[in-house]
């Protein structure tokens, strides 16, 4: 009763100690490797490309033939025996960098529950709000030196930090390619006037803080200082896509999602740790084939350019490329029924779905897991959502089993007893000798 | 006196009512009869004594009494979700009568803003901030809540009606408009639209949970009993006696829900459905992995009472929950409300009652809960009792001897305004809505809805547990620093508060006083008057090197194509440096912690 749960949360198991522990734990997982050589491919950044509504697995990364295979054809990739949908040609060229997972399976077939599950790794439960994986990483990372937020969500609000506290949640850009709202001075205000005003405010805050002696007033001032720092940050142009060449912008595609992916690259370059870019429209109960084609025509240039640019660019003062430090995840609510319904659509299908991992720590050039001939059932290497979460957490240096106290005094770990899937992760030895 | 007695009788009737009947007969219908022993009335003095004893024991020296202006602002925000108007502040400060604080509580309890405010509170607690569920008509639910709260429906009846609701969800119609809360913002007399269609807005809470009936049981237990039984959904509770089977048995009472479509086929907007209780659990539920163990369980209340004998397990569950002898029901509500008014419950978080999380000053919690149950679960009576107690009248300033964690309310706790409170307060302080109306901007309800939505997203406050630190997002700060509400609201445009003040007040000192009254609800100190009059006078003789227009136009906040942006476009910046200085002062006050916190 005497301890403050929040402070326990803050000063407890988190921070560097936690990260260290997780590395040691992972080292144990590869215990057969000689300890001196064991060096982990630790990712420091995370990009989630969120396919909102539930992307059809059989129309994207797990193509099928036969009556339920649908209208899209399969094409070869650079990886032997791995084919994907014909509307992802540029991604097919990059397949050596991709781990395509075809065997994710869950029970959550309702959008909201599934979205919560795939973001947090936990089924929703009214007694606690779980943090998203992005929030966990934000909590474990120092604030970017640039004054930019640690976590940015583009095209949708993503999921927040739950019991970790709103400060670890995403900074939201409502639309890809558009800068943040309210970051520039208000109309009829310039820097001089803004500074004059904040000076008045500081005087008021001084006296109110003195009068109440409440830490919340100081907390609020610190938050304002952060916001003002962001407004005046040298890296604020990271939000501005006009700084890119026309050719680069065109390569990402003239879509909100394409612009969002280009923003993601620029933000990571400027020190942001987590970016989620949302592509909505995958709930294709009607007209599945026209719609998925259009969606893939947005995904293909945007995602391939994102990976390509991350592979080329470096963050300020860093030697490795962004792709060497960034884990990229493409995923959505759930898969869709192999059965094609009367409206030429496909319905919700959590039993089998596909996702893609790329970048830091990921062993590319493979398709992992398998569904049956129709895509109706996982027949090999079933991946649970907690295990997927652990596979994402591990290369990020987050210990999947690390436990925090929630405000109601409940111990909650980063993943729900998830275990990393070794086959999807790079062998630490290979990285060490590379 | 007579009313008290009748209510007490009603409770007595309810207590023997059993599962089949409604838990209590409406007080008005109870005839004569033999008077039972008078219900114990809660005595403020006794309550204060309990608090003083706790303070003495813990070595806490409470902070001094808050001044009248601070109290008035506080009680307006807590009971009505908005700021007191300046003329009301002046009247209140001038009033020398003894009972004026209690009197203002009465006025607020009777005001339309009271129902509006508590509708927002319960809508948030019960539905969450996002509109959920495909058949959920949030507007109809809000309308139902508001009507019940305005009538001061006894809490046991309100919860019973909510828990057992059946019938039609919605009038149907455009989902967007319904989501916008148009029926609520509708100028038509309330209830008129829904009455004809026999809509029971209460069903929408159950419909929210229809895909996950276990969550319905879990939420009902957490919100109305303060028991987090759902922690035991996945495994036995680690520290408490609850077993997984307890949760399964408790949830089993909610498996009979059935939704019957009224609109068949494709519906463009909200689908009209009817919620009923099916005589038996659908076989498919028994086949759902999560629900199968629940479907196999015998519906049982938390104290072991069987709910299976009743025809309708949902009704049996609700009757068990709201009966006066339920050890959790009255306490859970009192604790939650205490948390709302005092910033921290006797038990914190307010929805986590368990032996290993004991209450502080439990005798006061018990006394308030007893009085609440004994007086027919009269919500307004409880609010009178709570607001009369000493902690509610203390200032926020921490004395040196207050316990550092302040678990005993030795000084008033700062709580940030919630989304609707904030929006109401900005409008009240600036008259920006009036200015928009005067400028002939259409669709004010829509504007308000959009603002509520964005504020809801930005300023959601978790009131259910106490935090020592301020938790906010950068987006919040940017919205208040650069957003149109505070920036337009602080301008002297036709119809805004500042414009009115500048037109009416003669001296600079009078202007400062009026601005303070309007924004932070108090008179400025002598020091403040001096400082700010000097500030504006200095500004008028020595204007800053650059003024508004030029550079700023280019940097205009993006994404504000709203009615407010049009209002801004219609009104170029002032060229009068003194006016600009007044605007600066207004802006700073709207951004100040004194404005943003309830204190």
Tell me what the structure shows.
The complex is a heterodimer of chains A (434) and B (599). By secondary structure, chain A is of the alpha/beta class. Helix content of chain A is 34%, strand content 15%. Chain A has helices at 5-11, 15-29, 89-93, 111-120, 133-140, 191-212, 215-231, 246-252, 256-269, 288-312, 322-325, 385-393, 428-433, and strands at 45-52, 74-76, 83-85, 98-104, 151-154, 171-173, 274-280, 326-332, 335-336, 348-349, 353-359, 366-368, 370-371, 378-380, 403-405, 411-413. Chain A starts with a helix and ends with a helix. Mean pLDDT of chain A is 88; it is low at 1-41 and 429-434. With 599 residues, chain B is mostly helical. The longest helix of chain B is centred in the first third of the chain and has 16 residues, at 112-127. Residues 1-36, 183-196 and 546-560 of chain B have low confidence and may be disordered. Chains A and B meet through α6 and α7 of A and α13, α24, α29, α31 and α32 of B.
Percent of residues in β-strands of chain A: 15-25%
Query: Helix count of chain A, per DSSP?
Result: 13
Number of strands of chain A: 16
Arithmetic mean of pLDDT of chain B: 84
First and last CA, distance of chain B: 36 Å
Shape of chain B: globular
Q: Main interface pair?
A: A-B, 70 and 83 residues
Q: What is the tally of helical segments of chain B?
A: 32
User: Helices and strands of chain B: which structural class?
Assistant: mainly alpha
Summarize the helix and strand pattern of chain A as letters: HHEEEHEHHEEHHHHEHHEEEEEEEHEEH
Identify low-pLDDT runs of chain A.
Answer: 1-41, 429-434
Oligomer kind: heterodimer
Main sheet of chain B, how many strands, which sense, barrel?
Answer: 3 strands, antiparallel
Give the strand tally of chain B. 5
Radius of gyration of chain B: 26 Å
């Amino acid at each position: 009763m005497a301890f403050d749960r929040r402070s326990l949360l803050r000063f407890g198991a988190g921070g560097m100690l936690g990260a260290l522990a997780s590395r040691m734990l992972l080292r144990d997982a590869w215990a057969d490797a000689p300890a001196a050589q064991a060096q982990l491919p630790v990712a420091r950044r995370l990009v989630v490309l969120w396919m909102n509504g539930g992307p059809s697995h059989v129309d994207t990364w797990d193509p099928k033939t036969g009556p339920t295979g649908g209208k899209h054809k399969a094409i070869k990739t650079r990886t032997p025996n791995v084919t994907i949908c014909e509307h992802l040609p540029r991604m097919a060229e990059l397949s050596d960098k991709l781990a395509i997972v075809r065997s994710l399976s869950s029970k959550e077939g309702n959008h909201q529950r599934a979205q919560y599950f795939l973001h947090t790794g936990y089924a929703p439960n009214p007694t606690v709000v779980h943090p998203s994986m992005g929030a966990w990483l934000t909590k474990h990372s120092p604030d970017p030196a640039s004054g930019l937020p640690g976590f940015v969500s583009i095209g949708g609000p993503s999921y927040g930090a739950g019991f970790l506290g709103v400060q670890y949640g995403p900074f939201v850009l409502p639309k890809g390619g558009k800068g943040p709202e309210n970051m520039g001075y208000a109309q009829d205000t310039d820097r001089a006037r803004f500074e004059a005003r904040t000076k008045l405010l500081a005087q008021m805050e001084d006296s109110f803080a003195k009068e109440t002696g409440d830490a919340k007033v100081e907390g609020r001032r610190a938050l304002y200082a952060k916001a003002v720092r962001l407004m005046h940050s040298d890296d604020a142009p990271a939000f501005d896509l006009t700084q890119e060449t026309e050719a680069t912008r065109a390569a990402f595609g003239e879509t909100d999602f394409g612009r969002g992916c280009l923003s993601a690259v620029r933000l990571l370059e400027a020190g942001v740790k987590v970016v989620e870019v949302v592509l909505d429209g995958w709930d294709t109960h009607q007209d599945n084939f026209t719609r998925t084609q259009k969606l893939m025509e947005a995904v293909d240039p945007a995602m391939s350019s994102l990976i390509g640019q991350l592979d080329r660019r470096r963050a300020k003062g860093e030697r490795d490329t962004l792709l060497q430090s960034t884990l990229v995840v493409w995923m959505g609510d759930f898969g869709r029924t192999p059965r094609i319904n009367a409206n030429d659509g496909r319905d919700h299908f959590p039993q089998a779905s596909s996702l893609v991992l790329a970048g830091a720590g990921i062993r590319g050039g493979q398709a992992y897991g398998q569904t049956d001939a129709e895509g109706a059932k996982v027949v090999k290497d079933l991946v649970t959502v907690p295990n997927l979460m652990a596979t994402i957490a591990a290369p990020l240096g987050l210990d999947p089993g690390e436990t925090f106290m929630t405000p109601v005094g409940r111990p909650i770990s980063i993943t729900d007893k998830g275990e990393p899937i070794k086959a999807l992760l790079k062998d630490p030895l290979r990285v060490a000798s590379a | 006196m007579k009313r008290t007695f009748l209510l007490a009788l009603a409770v007595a009737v309810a207590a023997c009512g059993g599962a089949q009947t409604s838990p209590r007969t409406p007080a008005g219908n109870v005839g004569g009869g033999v008077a039972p022993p008078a219900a114990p009335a809660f005595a403020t003095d006794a309550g204060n004594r309990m608090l003083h004893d706790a303070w003495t024991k813990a070595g806490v020296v409470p902070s001094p009494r808050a001044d009248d202006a601070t109290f008035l602002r506080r009680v307006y925000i807590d009971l009505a979700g908005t700021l007191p108007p300046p003329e009301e502040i002046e009247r209140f400060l001038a009033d020398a009568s003894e009972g004026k604080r209690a009197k203002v509580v009465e006025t607020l309890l009777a005001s339309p803003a009271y129902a509006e405010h508590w509708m927002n509170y319960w809508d948030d607690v019960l539905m969450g901030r996002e509109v959920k569920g495909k058949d959920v008509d949030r507007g109809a639910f809000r309308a139902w809540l508001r009507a019940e709260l305005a009538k001061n429906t006894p809490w046991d009846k309100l919860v019973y009606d909510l828990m057992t609701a059946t019938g039609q969800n919605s009038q149907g119609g455009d989902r967007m408009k319904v989501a916008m809360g148009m029926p609520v913002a509708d100028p038509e007399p309330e209830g008129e639209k829904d009455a004809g269609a026999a809509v029971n807005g209460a069903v929408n809470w159950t419909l929210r949970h229809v895909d996950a009936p276990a969550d319905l049981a879990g939420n009902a237990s957490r919100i109305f009993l303060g028991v987090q039984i759902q922690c035991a959904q996945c495994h036995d509770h680690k520290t408490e006696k609850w077993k997984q089977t307890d949760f399964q048995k408790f949830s089993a009472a909610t498996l009979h829900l059935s939704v019957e479509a009224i609109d068949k086929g494709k519906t463009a907007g909200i689908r009209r459905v009817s919620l009923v209780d099916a005589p038996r659990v659908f076989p498919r539920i028994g086949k759902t992995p999560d629900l199968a163990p629940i479907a196999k369980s015998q519906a049982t209340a938390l104290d072991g009472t069987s709910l299976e004998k009743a025809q309708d397990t949902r009704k049996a569950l609700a009757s068990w929950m709201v009966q006066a002898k339920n050890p959790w029901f009255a306490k859970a509500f009192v604790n939650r409300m205490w948390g709302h008014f005092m910033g921290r419950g006797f038990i914190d978080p307010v929805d986590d009652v368990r032996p290993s999380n004991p209450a502080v000053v439990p005798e006061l919690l018990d006394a308030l809960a007893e009085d609440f149950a004994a007086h027919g679960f009269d919500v307004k009576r409880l609010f009178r009792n709570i607001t009369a107690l000493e902690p509610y009248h203390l200032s926020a300033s921490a004395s040196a001897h207050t316990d550092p964690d302040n678990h005993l309310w030795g000084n008033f706790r700062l709580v940030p305004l919630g989304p609707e409170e904030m929006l109401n307060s900005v409008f009240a302080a600036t008259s920006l809505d009036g200015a928009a109306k005067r400028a002939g901007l259409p669709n004010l309800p829509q504007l308000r809805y959009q603002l509520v939505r964005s504020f809801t997203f930005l300023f959601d406050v978790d009131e259910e547990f106490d935090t020592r630190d301020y938790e906010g997002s950068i987006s919040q700060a940017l919205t208040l620093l650069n957003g149109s509400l505070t920036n337009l609201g602080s301008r002297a445009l036709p119809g805004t508060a500042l414009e009115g003040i500048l037109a009416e007040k003669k001296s600079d000192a009078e202007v400062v006083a009026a601005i303070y009254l309007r924004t932070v609800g108090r008179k400025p100190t002598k020091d403040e008057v001096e400082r700010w009059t000097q500030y504006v006078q200095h500004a008028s003789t020595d204007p800053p090197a650059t003024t508004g227009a030029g550079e700023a136009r280019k940097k205009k906040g993006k994404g504000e194509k709203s009615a407010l942006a049009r209002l801004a476009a219609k009104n170029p910046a002032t060229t009068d440096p003194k006016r600009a200085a007044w605007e600066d002062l207004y802006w700073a006050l709207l951004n100040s912690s004194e404005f943003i916190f309830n204190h």
